[in-house]
């Protein structure tokens, strides 16, 4: 079983490189289930496409070069592997990804140790919750997989997640983490996927570290960089999204799972992972911006309504040209360094905070006015009771009629009650 590191819980401060290094204070292990996103509980069903009959000549040439490099990988520098991963076609096939993904993040053979058994981890406080989330990921497995193999993969996935959160108890598991973990497990196997997932989850530039904090604030802050990138690239499109009030929530599952949750084609998912594994931590946000730019015609054709716009953007089609989208995202990143966007993001978040304050104030004022109308109506009813007949039946009928009339009058003239109350704080009726 993995030894627990004595790193402690950390706050909600992460820099643009994902540096979420913990302070020294120790706390107990727990998972932040308050951060779960409803949409992530229903993953898309992956399509494990067969190889194409015809391959692009450039990709074929790269395949041959990769095979030559893999004959003696120790003499190949990291820049070469990164070039393979980022260029057209990515790493082409899982047989190459299995060996190159660990190299992209610096995993060594010595770290690829045998995992503990599931029984050894089953007493962990979050075991049951992890199992529930893993069971939701069945659609992420290859179709037609034999029952025994599926159960083995589920157990391996549970062990993989528990090993990481035991090793780094200050990190908070989030729903969607299993989408990343299953992608690594399917490609690299249980030995290599553990140190690989550790690299992605903990460290000065770990891209998943902001997602594993006490609250979602660091994640939301980083996702907000998408909006000024869009604004600089297409002011008209940014205005359209702003008028709809759609915000960034539609892209949250994309970012949390590196699109592993939201895409239907397995080949698209692993192609993006090729690039993300050797890109800056914030690069997936630029891919979200490039994807929205690509879908601009559909956005313009959609009603300027928050619910409809969110529905349109959150559902990704199967025919997205990710090679082109990655090229656009690279251009956006080169032209819009994250440090140059900080002032715009801060201004955006101040406006959002001010809007929240105004909305809360309007809600409070409506409650005060509603309470005032209720007090005024009660005062009128109290006066009516003093002049109504003493007979219970006649009194009840008169009260019911008066209450109905008063309700109708108050509906059409609510200002009468609030104005009189404002002029006279002791006002209780007519």
From TrEMBL:
<dbReference type="GO" id="GO:0006888">
    <property type="term" value="P:endoplasmic reticulum to Golgi vesicle-mediated transport"/>
</dbReference>
<keyword id="KW-1133">Transmembrane helix</keyword>
<keyword id="KW-0472">Membrane</keyword>
<keyword id="KW-0343">GTPase activation</keyword>
<protein>
    <submittedName>
        <fullName>TBC1 domain family member 20</fullName>
    </submittedName>
</protein>
<dbReference type="GO" id="GO:0005789">
    <property type="term" value="C:endoplasmic reticulum membrane"/>
</dbReference>
<feature type="domain" description="Rab-GAP TBC">
    <location>
        <begin position="91"/>
        <end position="280"/>
    </location>
</feature>
<dbReference type="Pfam" id="PF00566">
    <property type="entry name" value="RabGAP-TBC"/>
</dbReference>
<keyword id="KW-0175">Coiled coil</keyword>
<dbReference type="GO" id="GO:0005096">
    <property type="term" value="F:GTPase activator activity"/>
</dbReference>
<dbReference type="InterPro" id="IPR000195">
    <property type="entry name" value="Rab-GAP-TBC_dom"/>
</dbReference>
<keyword id="KW-0812">Transmembrane</keyword>
<dbReference type="InterPro" id="IPR045913">
    <property type="entry name" value="TBC20/Gyp8-like"/>
</dbReference>
<feature type="coiled-coil region">
    <location>
        <begin position="341"/>
        <end position="371"/>
    </location>
</feature>
<dbReference type="InterPro" id="IPR035969">
    <property type="entry name" value="Rab-GAP_TBC_sf"/>
</dbReference>
<feature type="transmembrane region" description="Helical">
    <location>
        <begin position="393"/>
        <end position="412"/>
    </location>
</feature>
């Amino acid at each position: 079983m993995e030894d627990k590191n004595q790193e402690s819980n950390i706050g909600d401060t992460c820099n643009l490189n994902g540096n979420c290094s913990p302070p020294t204070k120790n706390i107990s292990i727990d998972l932040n289930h308050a951060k779960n996103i409803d949409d992530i509980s229903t993953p898309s069903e992956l399509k494990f496409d067969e190889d194409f009959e015809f391959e692009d000549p450039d990709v074929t040439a790269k395949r041959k070069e990769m095979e030559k490099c893999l004959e003696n990988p120790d003499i190949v520098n990291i820049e070469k592997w990164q070039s393979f991963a980022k260029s057209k076609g990515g790493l082409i096939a899982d047989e190459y990804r299995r060996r190159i993904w660990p190299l992209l993040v610096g995993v060594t053979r010595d770290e690829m140790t045998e995992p503990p058994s599931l029984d050894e981890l089953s007493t962990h406080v979050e075991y049951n919750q992890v199992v529930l989330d893993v069971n939701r990921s069945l659609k992420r497995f290859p179709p037609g997989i034999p029952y025994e193999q599926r159960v083995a993969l589920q157990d391996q996935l549970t062990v993989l997640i528990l090993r990481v959160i035991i090793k780094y108890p200050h990190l908070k598991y989030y729903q969607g983490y299993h989408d990343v973990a299953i992608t690594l497990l399917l490609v690299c196997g249980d030995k290599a996927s553990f140190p690989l997932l550790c690299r992605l989850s903990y460290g000065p530039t770990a891209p998943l570290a902001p997602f594993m904090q006490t609250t979602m604030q660091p994640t939301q802050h980083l996702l907000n960089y998408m909006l000024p990138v869009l604004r600089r690239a297409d002011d008209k499109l940014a205005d359209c999204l702003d008028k709809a009030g759609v915000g960034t929530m539609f892209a949250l599952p994309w970012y949390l799972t590196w699109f592993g949750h939201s895409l239907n084609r397995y080949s698209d998912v692993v192609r993006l992972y090729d690039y993300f594994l050797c890109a800056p931590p914030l690069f997936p946000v630029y891919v979200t911006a490039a994807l929205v730019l690509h879908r601009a015609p559909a956005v313009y054709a959609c009603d300027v309504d928050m619910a409809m716009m969110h529905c349109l953007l959150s559902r990704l089609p199967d025919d997205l040209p990710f090679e082109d989208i990655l090229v656009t995202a690279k251009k956006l990143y080169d032209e819009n360094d994250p440090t140059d966007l900080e002032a715009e993001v801060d201004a955006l978040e101040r406006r959002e905070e001010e809007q929240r304050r105004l909305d809360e104030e309007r809600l409070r004022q409506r409650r005060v006015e509603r309470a005032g109308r209720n007090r005024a109506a009660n005062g009128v009813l109290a006066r009516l009771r003093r002049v109504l007949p003493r007979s219970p039946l006649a009194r009840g009928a008169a009260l019911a009629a008066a209450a109905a009339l008063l309700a109708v009058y108050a509906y059409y003239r609510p200002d009468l009650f609030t104005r009189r109350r404002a002029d006279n704080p002791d006002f209780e009726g007519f």
